[in-house]
Write a structure and sequence with these properties.
The chain is mainly alpha-helical and 108 residues long. The chain has one domain: Winged helix-like DNA-binding domain superfamily/Winged helix DNA-binding domain (Arc Repressor Mutant, subunit A, Orthogonal Bundle), CATH 1.10.10.10. It is built from six helices and four strands. The strands form two sheets. Strands 1-2 form a two-stranded parallel ribbon. It has a two-stranded antiparallel ribbon with strand order 3-4. The longest helix has 13 residues. It is globular. It starts with a helix and ends with a helix. It binds a DNA duplex (13 and 13 nucleotides) through helix 2, helix 3 and strand 2.
Length: 108
DNA sequence: ACGGTGACCACTT
DNA sequence: TAAGTGGCCACCG
């Protein structure tokens, strides 16, 4: 698969997210070199919804858990995040700015 | 083979 | 200030 690189990078980035931190689809997309292809990131995670990838640490720009319905249980994603010390309210990560982890800044 | 769709984001009315 | 629309690229029916 030629898009393996895209997947791989998403995979790598998500795996590098520290505990208690989250990133956004847009940030990852930008890191991949296609700032406009944030949809692909979500799509990639959808296909890579393996347990090996902590996709629960990836949220949208507003911090909303938009992909929670793809985790099987809507509460699972929230539980996982809360378990990492994050505060979730109304399907949204509180203090997102505080726990935001930017791959472009942290990874290079 | 083709069109619709998607875990989104940013710019333009 | 809020709502609408375009763009991105791969998968599924």
């Amino acid at each position: 698969m030629k898009d393996n690189q895209f997947f791989k990078k998403v995979y790598q980035v998500v795996l590098q997210i520290p505990i208690g931190k989250v990133t956004t689809y847009g940030a990852i997309a930008k890191f991949l070199g296609s700032p406009q292809s944030s949809r692909m990131v979500g799509w990639a995670l959808n296909k890579l919804n393996c347990i090996d990838i902590p996709a629960h640490r990836v949220v949208n720009r507003q911090g909303l858990l938009t992909g929670k319905y793809h985790f099987g249980s809507t509460s699972l994603m929230q539980q996982l995040l809360e378990n990492e010390g994050l505060l979730i309210k109304d399907n949204q990560v509180q203090f997102l700015k505080n726990v935001f982890w930017d791959p472009n800044k942290e990874l290079n």
